[in-house]
Amino acid sequence: MAKPKVFVTRIIRDAGLTLVNDFCDAEVWQGDLPPSREVMLEKVRGVDGLLCLLTDRIDGELLDAAGSQLKVVSNHAVGFDNVVVPDATARRIPVGNTPGILTDATADFTFALLMSAARRVPEAERYLRAGKWKTWGPSILLGADFVNKTLGLVGFGRIGRAVAKRAAGFDMRVIYYDRDSAPEHGATPVDSLDQLLRESDFVSLHTPLNDSTRHMVNADFLGKMKSNAILVNTSRGPVVDQDALYQALKSNQIFAAALDVTDPEPLPMDSPLLTLENCVIAPHIASASEKTRDDMARLAANNLIAGLKGERLPHCVNPDVYNPK
Ligand code: GLV
Questions:
Q1: Is residue 324 over pLDDT 80?
Q2: Is the CB of 99 under 6 A from ligand 1?
Q3: Residue 139 CA, ligand 1 centroid: distance in Å
Q4: Residue 8's closest CA among 50, 47, 66, 42?
Q5: Residue 269 burial (10 A CB sphere; 0-12, 13-18, 19+)
Q6: Do 189 and 207 fall into the same domain?
Q7: Same domain (yes/no): 150, 107
Q8: Sign of torsion over alpha carbons 56, 81, 6, 295
Q9: Residues 256 and 310 grouped into a single domain
Q10: Is this model's pTM higher than 0.90 or not?
Q11: Probe ligand 1: pick from 13, 82, 102, 234, max atoms within 8 Å of CB?
Q12: Which residue of 58, 96, 135, 309 has the smallest Cβ count within 10 Å?
């Protein structure tokens, strides 16, 4: 029997690619950069399955370009704001994602960013490389402390909870704003975002991107943070209004920010954020550890293969497709 046809939009780790190639007749995009929209529309035509990345926009137009034989979309990410899920659900196409396995790597990196911004690590390295290190000095490059400081988590899902666990080891007080999550790891829920912003020395974002979180961090939000506070974003770039953040950092309204995600990605090299010493920026690498990326590739492949077999996906973001009204 002929193998199902699939398009894989980038070279993923062998741990997953081998599974895909064993089960499917796969075309794998070889470029370092994502396929253009035009290429995507052409490559998906006639495929039974699509394994895509967070850099690919998947919507009704693309699903229709694929054709009615398309059985599954497997997104190689836990976040799925790049997929217009209602468009997939309307066509009874299950969409897979990769939750759970990147929780620890992302929480680790959240802490790496938080500490980098608080202790000014990238700035200190720039200082050293620029030849400015002339002597040890009592007041050189002073940063923030962690012990007994308050970490406020906006969103207390898997990653937020894993960050709280790490913060407990630093003797931090942890509060969170999330109406749907029970306390864990000594973290305390607060009643309002305002209270969280008022009390936190560090504010870390762990929300998905959707209509209610887009530009949630705006001038009003930043204005309610403490003047020595640090903002960390490992969620999605558009959760933060970057113009407002630039103003807040430039005027030292808050102490610093550390971002793993930007809007757009990649961040243009003429972004004013890149002129600031108190803004640490990484190129969306929170889940970039070898084991995590192997696990993500494997899970994305397993979602794809389950969908091709007509089985329930191990992780499906639109389970409504299995219970049509
Ligand atoms: C990474 O940002 C992901 O959503 O997996």
A1: no
A2: no
A3: 39
A4: 50
A5: exposed
A6: yes
A7: yes
A8: positive
A9: no
A10: yes
A11: 102
A12: 135
